Amino acid sequence: MADHYQNNIYHQGGGDSYGTYGEGGGHDGYGYQADYPPQEEDAASDVTEGHDEEDQMYEGEYQGIPHPDEVKAAQRAARAKTRSAGSATSELEELSEQYEDIMEDCGHGRFQWTLFVVLGLALMADGVECFVVAFVLPSAEKDLCLSNAEKGMLGLVVFLSMMVGAFFWGGMADKVGRRRCLIVALAINCVFAFLSSFAQGYGFFLFFRLLSGIGIGGTVPIVYSYFSEFLQMDKRGEHLSWLCMFWMIGGIYASFTAWGIIPRYGEETGSLQHHQPICEVAMVTLQVCVCVYVHAGWGFSMGTEFQFHSWRVFVLVAALPAIGSLVGLTFMPESPRFLLENAKHDEAWMILKQVHDTNWRAKGQPEKVFTVTHIKAPKTAEDEFIEIQSATGTPVQRWAVRSLTLCKLVLKNVASLLSAELRFATLFMAIIWFCMAFSYYGLSVWFPDMIKHLQYEEYESRVKVFHRERVENFHFNFSLENQVHKEGEYIRDKFISIEMKSVKFEDSLFEDCRFEDIRSTDTVFENCTFRSTFFYNTDLWEEKFVDCKMENTSFEKNKHGCHLDTMEENDVLIYLVSFLGSLAVLPGNIISALFMEKIGRVKIIGGSMLISAGCTFFLFLSFTQSAIIALQCLFCGVSVAAWNGIEVVTVELYPASKRATAFGVLNALCKLAAILGSSIFASFVGVTKAIPILLSFTALVCGGLVALRLPDTRQKILH
After folding, report:
1. Going by DSSP bridges, is the β-strand pair 375-378/545-546 parallel, antiparallel, or unpaired?
2. Which of 19, 93, 206, 283 is most buried, judging by how many CB atoms fall within 10 Å of its CB?
3. pTM of this prediction?
């Protein structure tokens, strides 16, 4: 009886507005009934012989627990009763209910878990992308000789490109297909991430990272839309929340690989200089020098023009999750819900059968037959595409017309988000996305910057000041660090093979002195006088001499290139803070996934945002590095629950034809808020804590209160 019921539920509700799928003998049907001939109610097929359901005893029967199939049948009966009692069912509602019934029959198993891993890798790649530039900048700024403005532009271009990518790929996924767009987007990311690792100039590196970001920007809107369309209603919230965990894994992966691959740049360049004679010998015979160092990272050079330091290796390794997802997607099918929306009934049926058979075979029940033979779906083929396919002209003209029409359809879909039935949902979700992203990304930048500021203040408090010292005929063979020399006189002194770090000379005199083999960081000479002084093989170029007088002074073999600066010792803190922040997300992810269906999306979003707002006030009491790191972990752990709820609700509020588009628009708005938040919060580091704290508190409270006005979508069938 169960099979008979499942077979007949899809025959309900005729109408001329539907294309009937699977009718044998019909002109508009797809005759798959030949593969599964109709059976009598009490008959058994060859594959089910010996598996009479009446002979099997459900183990929960004695405990009064209803069989899962009985629960599903009751839910379907309730939905059918609601349809018959209510007004006429629309095409979209009937398709949605049919599709939900089919997904319940397919079950949740091996297919969904495989897709979960493949799409999780894509989401992991998105998480890695947000960290790549931050991790490589300390080394890349020296390798590429970047100014502060250029470093700021590199950080900005990450979110700008991801914003463009989210908007573009989200809209395209609703018209071209989820799987196809995700494959192209990941391929673009992989190709240009690879090229960026070899870029020797700032312009090319910026351009390649821009295109790489546009590619990876499409992953978030497509991944959630794609995965949700393979989930039944009672599994949707929990498993979409588990999927969010891959973003956290991306942060941990980026932190660990950067920590292991990128060395302290001073050590790497020092090693290269130390092995220079060996490399020069190799250059004579092989015209290439390759140097590998176990402790300081590794890199290679080809002549003097091409340098491949270890931070470039990290850029390549960071692309591995995207490559893994790209390979996995080649074995995954398109979303059947998307295909049904576009009147591709036969392809959708074959994919649904694949999902069903894969799951039940993995559960040890290969005898279960996919009984669906009829799927009624609206005829929604775009007239414009039909006209394009039959249009005449050159291939270039047809491509131009097709692209223009596609852009018009995407923009029309975007405009429909403000239609009467979606206007308030879009407005509420836009406020929530913006407020959450503004606070989260703003504080994510503020936390490490504030820690660096505290370190800098502590470092400055230990500065040694030397006033009016006179040194004659002295050989400085030890490093100078964190010192200020005022009105000093240095006569016939030698500064040879030393490192100067955070050293400042003011109003000082250097006479008959010699500077040789000097490496310096944050060192400057202000209003000093140099007489008969000789500089040989130093990195003290003219920018480090401010208002100085040079009398009979010469420079020979001066080192050129900012890469010769030594690196700050506390750069490892970048990796540590990012790692701890990503790891702190784990408890929030687990709790939100387990309680997403029990508590509800709305309460999780609103509650998490309000609790996060409360956490920000503790920042007034944070005066140490450890306190700030602890509060960062607390904030990240609480706010991730809100992110999970926001992403689940975004999927559930919009119909299939607009789902990826809406997600793309809102995710683009999220990146815009991230740009504003990180820029505003960073500008107040070292100035005041009050404004960043009050801004984040206000945004989180506003977003949390708006979230509580959202409808509960737990029992909502995806339209």
Report:
1. unpaired
2. 19
3. 0.78
